Every structure is written in structure tokens, then in C-alpha cells.
Amino acid sequence: xxxxxxxxNSSPWLTIALLCIGQMMIVIDQNIVNVALPAxxxxxxxxxxxxxxxxxxxxxxxxxLLLLAGRLGDLIGxxxxxxTGIALxxxxxxxxxxxSNEGTLIAFRFVQGVGGAIAxxxxxxxxxxxxxxxxxxxxxxxxxxxxxxxxxxxxxLLGGVLxxxxxxxxxxxINAPIGAVLVLAGLRSIPKQPGxxxxxxxxxxxxxxxxVGMMLLVYTIVDAEKVGWASAQTLLLLxxxLLLLAGFVIRQATVANPLLPLGLFxxxxxxxxxxxxxxxxxxxxxxxxxxxxxxxxxxxxxxxQAGLGFVPIAVVIAAVSLGLSARLITRFGxxxxxxxxxxxxVAAFGMLAFARVDGTYVxxxxxxxxxxxxxxxxxxxxxxxxxxxxxxxxxxxxxxxxFNTTQQIGGAIGLTVLSxxxxxxxxxxxxxxxxxxxxxxxxxxxxxxxxxxxxxxALLVGAAMLRTGSRTAEAAEPGRAAVPGTEDVPVL
Length: 492
Hints:
CATH architecture of the largest domain: Up-down Bundle
Main location: membrane
CATH class of the largest domain: Mainly Alpha
Order of helices and strands: HHHHHHHHHHHHHHHHH
Pfam family, one: MFS_1
Number of domains: 2
Transmembrane segments: 12-31, 51-69, 81-100, 106-129, 141-162, 168-190, 202-222, 228-250, 271-292, 304-324, 336-357, 369-390, 402-424, 444-466
Number of helices: 17
Protein name: MFS transporter
CATH superfamily of the largest domain: MFS general substrate transporter like domains
Number of strands: 0
Oligomer: single chain
Subcellular location: Cell membrane
């Protein structure tokens, strides 16, 4: 990675554990709320029109602040930014739990999204620079991948358990003690990494352009399903958000100390990894969202049972990400594992496209999720390793923020596109006389096939852009080590 790993008196694996717990807590919160929404609506008397803002109020600042937060980590220190974000996230979670009306809940959810963005923007950068030895670095990135993917799978289960056996307030309360422990333990155990100083990249205009542009883009995407892509709101706000982001790019190309150095994108590995992640996450959201709907609305499972149905995929992702992936990456290389994982994900979506109305969980859903977990457990660590290998430690914060931003935008766009096709197909089948379950399943089949298409595009992009290796990209392969300053030099 160009510099030795940061030193600390505590075990580096303790630091990795704290960072991954923080990542998992934040990811779980993005999913835990969905299961509890009916209880929240009933408890606070929120209208159906405003209920979506319990989710959107978190998603908008989270997606909009990741790049800025990642760069701030490089400038003022990633430990400082991470712990500040965790403290804000924990405190706002507590306030969300105590909210007594929809206005205060939505306001505190916004603050929670700010805290989540600040904390998560730097985590991958810290994880990727903890070790310089390739296999240990692959293990650390595998742990991060599990925290991200496992949190997505555990969220619905935890939300169902807390809501059913306690009440919806506890989906927020649970974050406060975890956040407090993370801050106290992190102050002692996470190594301090001095930043470059605000003078190296205090581009306030660029920060304003990217933050407002990203927030506006996320808002437009998540609200488009309700108001319509052809509505005046969407047709006005979408070009405006893109104009702001274009202004940000122009600003970064001309300012002396850019917030996002455009030179990062000269790395083919980093660029390819972000495109692959965008398409892969766009597809994976199809499993988490429409898979849950299939289990509940077609197979007739309760929310708690549906949450339990996602436990196997979390177990498989854990087994692969935490143990198997590092050994396989060391043996066969990152690109081979990335392509193998993507092929498995495409195959899993193909299996889901044959799910039946009168099917069973064990036959129609479980096998596909196990294949999906294996594929994601292989692909995600390899993808992140390829991307982060070409980034210097001084810029790992902004690269981490970029990865998180790509993930958020990919998920938002992917889910919106899939939902539009599902709605159209379901309505068409209903008009043709199909019963409700058959019409719904027909829509879900379209979603799974489109999701397979997204991941297939990711596979093709990876194959095209990663045909030749870079010395840094191959750092995890046997007998290779990263050489500073040789990013994307073809191997002869």
C-alpha cells in the first residue's frame, strides 16, 4: 500500500473488530427499520404518505455526505472522524427511540444519517491500511465485507425480533450502548493516524457542490417511485442534481487542493471496482427487497419468519468472507475470485427466477440464497481489494467514501428501476386475470432476471477493464508485493 501499517499498542485485530462492529451497526440500521415500519406508523400515527420519510430522511444525508466525510478523514484523521460519527449516530439513535411524533422522528433520523455517513466513510480506508502483508490485508477486507453484507441480512431478523418481543423503539435504542462502547474502546485501541491538514484539501465550494448534488440526486431517486419519473419534480431536480455534480467535477479539475483528486480515476483497478460494485449492489438489493416480499406475500411467512429466512445467507457470507476468501485470494488471485463470485450471483438470481407460487422455502428460496452468499462472500473482498490496492494510504479515506457512495447510489437506482418493472409486470398480469400471488410472483421474476442482468454487466465490465493486472492489484497473489508508484503498470 506504499506505507507501513499504523502502529498501535493494542492488537490490530481488535481495531478491525471495532471498525467492523461499527460498520455492521450502521448497515443493520439501514434495514432494521423496514420491518418495523407498520409498528412505527401505528405508534406515532404517521400517514402513509409520510411514512416513507422515516427511511428517506436517513438515506438522503447518508448518501450525500460520504465523499465529504471520507476526505475529511484523510485531512483531519480517520480515527477522529470515525469516532465522531459513531458518537453522533449513537446519540441520535437514542433520540429516535424517544421520539413522540413523526416530525421529531424524521428530524432525528436525518441526524442519524449524518452520523452514519461520517462514521462509515472512513472504515474501509482504515481496514485496508491496517496490514501491509497481503494475506492479512485480504482477511481484514473479508471481515469488512462480512460486516457490510451480514448486516444487510441480519437487519430484517433483528428488526422482527425487537418489534415483536419488545417494541419499535428498541430498533433505535439498541444502537446507543453499542455506540458508547465503540467510542470508549476506540479511543484506547484504534491507532491515531494524523491527517494531512485542512490546508491540503479544504475546498469548501467543492464540498458544497458534491454534498448538495448528492443529497438532491438521492432524494430525486428515492422519491421518483412515488411521484413518477416523468413528473415535474423529477424532470426538474434530476438535471439540477447532475448539473451540481458536473460543477463539482469541473471544480476538482481546476482547484489547487481538490476534495476528490480526479487522478484517482487514472487507476483502472479503482475505477473498475467502483463500476462493478455499482452494478452488483444494484442487483443485490433485488434479493434483500423482493426476496423478502416473496417469502412474506407469496409463501405467507410472518416478518419474523422472513427475517429468520435470511440467516443462512448471513452464515454463508460469514464463513466465506472471514475464513475462505483470504486463502482463495492468496492462492488464485483477486480477479479470479471476483469473476467466480459474480458468476455465482448471476446463477443464484437465475434460480430465483424459477421460484413457484406454491413453492417452499427449502426448495424455492434457500438454495438460491446459499449460492448468493457464496458468490458475494467471494466477490466483495476481491472487488474491494482490487480497488483499494491502487490507492495510497493518504487517500484511502476518500477512496473509502467513494466506495460507500457508489454502493448507496447503486442500491437506490437499482431498487427504483427494479420496482418500476415489477409494478408494470404485476399490473399487466393482474389485468390479464391472474390471481394476486401469481401476479406478484410474475413481477418478482422480472426483478430477479433484471438483477441477474445488472450483475452480468458487472462481470463483463470487470473482465474488460481487468484483463491485464497491475502490480498493486496482484498484491494478494503468491509471490507478489505492492510496489509504490507502479499502479496500473501492466505485468510483462
